[in-house]
Amino acid sequence: MAEVSRLPGPVADLWQWQLDGSCRRESPDVFFHPDGERGPSRRNRDRQAKAVCAGCPVMQSCREHALRVREPYGVWGAMTSNEREAAYAGPPGFVAASRAAS
Ligand code: SF4
Questions:
Q1: What is the C-alpha to C-alpha distance for residues 50 and 83, in angstroms, rounded to an integer?
Q2: Nearest atom (ligand 1) to Cα of 49
Q3: Helix (H) or strand (E) holding 82
Q4: Which of 3, 54, 64, 91 has the fewest CB atoms within 10 Å, i.e. the most exposed one?
Q5: Contact 87, 67 (CB under 8 A)
Q6: Quick one: pLDDT at residue 7?
Q7: How far is the CA of 58 from the centre of ligand 1 (A)?
Q8: C-beta of 48 in contact with ligand 1 (< 6 A)
Q9: Spatial contact of 84 and 46, defined as CB atoms under 8 Å apart
């Protein structure tokens, strides 16, 4: 679960971007791995999810949200959970740079 203290408040404008996400037309199974998934299966699923994100009109907002609230699971804003963990562990400013990268 994301750190709830970092979640934006209950203001519709702060969540509006989610209504425009390209993933709304996809199965959640593309974005969230099943228990125990490893290796090529996981890489292929992550690649499929990132391809959807690449054409998403709200990718930047999604990525910023995921990094800000430290979403622990799934592909958000074309970043896997492992890539987000690497951003958190990186040097100061790396998360901000990851937010800006697209
Ligand atoms: S960037 Fe990816 S995960 Fe985020 S809303 Fe768009 S399609 Fe969904």
A1: 12
A2: 2
A3: helix 81-89
A4: 91
A5: yes
A6: 74
A7: 7
A8: no
A9: no
Mean pLDDT value of segment 44-60: 98
Residues above pLDDT 70, as percent of the chain: 93
Question: Alpha carbon 84 to chain centroid distance?
Answer: 8
Out of 26, 61, 62, mutate this one to test ligand 1's pocket (max ligand atoms within 8 Å of CB): namely: 62
H or E element that contains 16: none
Here the tokens at position 39 are 């290796």
How much is the pTM?
Answer: 0.84
> What residues contact residue 33 under an 8 Å CB cut-off, 6+ apart?
42, 45, 46, 74
pLDDT for residue 64 is more than 60: yes
DSSP code for 37? -
Looking at every residue in the chain, the average pLDDT score rounds to 90
d(Cα 51, Cα 53) in Å, to the nearest integer?
5
CB-CB contact of 62 with 76 (8 Å): yes
Contact 56, 23 (CB under 8 A): yes
Dig out the tokens for 65 from the structure: 């949200």
